Amino acid sequence: MAGKALYLGPRLKKLRRDLGLTQANMASDLDISSSYIALMERNQRPVTAEMLIKLASTYRIDVGKLADEDADETSARLLGALRDPIFADIAIEPLDIEDIATSYPGIAEALLRLHTAFGEEQLALAERREGGDVISEAGAGASDPVGEARAFLAARRNCFPALDDSAAMLAKSLDSFAAMKDHLAENHQLDLRLTDDGLLRGALRWHDYHRRRIYISERIDQAGRRFQAALQIAILEQEEPIAGLVAESRLVSEDGKRLVRRALQSYWAAALLMPYRAFARAAEESRYDVEALCSRFAVSFEQAAHRLTTLQRPGEEGVPFFFLRVDRAGNVSKRLDGAGFPLARHGGGCPLWNVHTVFDRPAVVDAQLIELPDGERYVSIARTVRGGGGAYGVPSVTRSVAIACSATHLDKLTYGDVVASGDPTPIGVACRMCHRPRCIARSAPPVGREIVPARFRESGVPFDFSME
């Protein structure tokens, strides 16, 4: 400590305010002048070893926490933000980042919020340039609440460390449906019960406020029951932190805010079933084998695939994946982007992608190496999943989910051993944006291309266009 001056101004000020003290009160307790307290709080004087000992003995605090609380995580977040290409020409030393995180936590948080806002604007600009709907949080009119919610999650890389930490604290004690039932009874005086479809009238979960009961459909499987119980706990106990995240955003529509709240409640529920550090470690050990993760954490394929998109905590990042869910008609019902890939925001319409072809082999996992027209390659892991059903005559729907990551991560994936040996499947983001010639699956000609007359020659492709 003698080798380096320690400046703890903002933390000292926070400690004083948390204790309900004025500068004069603290000065009297420590037997120093008020002006010296003011100088330390403005980082114009270091906090000496002797002063740290005085603080510890006078206020019975852990000096280590005063010096290091949250600094490591803030440093990691800052380091992640400063990897943005916009800062590439600025030489910033890691020690400088640590100093900012430790000595100026308010400024660090302000910079992180500005960088998040910058990311949101980049997404909005990309959408406008592509001629798509405005889906940014601050989009003019923000007429698409689903797009607003997607932009909110994408700008934060679908990762919320505070929710992960909160869920991890309860994960060990709430590791089963029975434990969650007991938790709801003891902490909320609510009776959790399984019931048939007659009472729920098609719902999966119902909070009967007047009878103080939570009903969950007995038609859903064990993974679904645990998730619904965890979701109910999130709704009851995580309202304040989730409201804080929504308030910090620039969401415009009320529907957009509701969708984000639901997404964050589901995020917390998934984090309870699959705690961040345990899940990230298991993912790395299994080489991102989704089925192995399902078995390890007793979750569904979709739940495990969904959770893999969230492993972007600064300093503890996993392979960055994006997630897509489609139905047989090609309608995209869910997009999650923890990786910042354009394919995640606009793709999903190419029938050559295995997110569509897996319908031919239900419940079988398929891995595919795909290549976009610009040469970018991805590994796509897809499988069908079933929703609804659970009894004879009850409607169900089969969808396909896919997670994909850059092919640069092939060596980290158990699927990489298979796909690396074959040629990539050429796909496009959308037919109108894909300029690949002779595509038998094409449904529309690309923008800006002239259709070739077929008077003397039949090409055999739906739209034969000039490459000149």
UniProtKB/TrEMBL annotation:
Ranges for the HTH cro/C1-type domain? 12-66
Q: Name one GO cellular component term.
A: cytosol
Q: What is the name attached to this protein's record?
A: XRE family transcriptional regulator
Keywords associated with the record = DNA-binding, Transcription, Transcription regulation
**Is DNA-binding a UniProt keyword of this protein?**
yes
An example molecular function term from Gene Ontology annotations = DNA-binding transcription factor activity
Family membership: Belongs to the short-chain fatty acyl-CoA assimilation regulator (ScfR) family.
InterPro entries membership: Cro/C1-type_HTH, HTH_RamB, IrrE_HExxH, Lambda_DNA-bd_dom_sf, ScfR_C, TransReg_Diox_bact_type
Q: Which SUPFAM superfamilies match?
A: lambda repressor-like DNA-binding domains
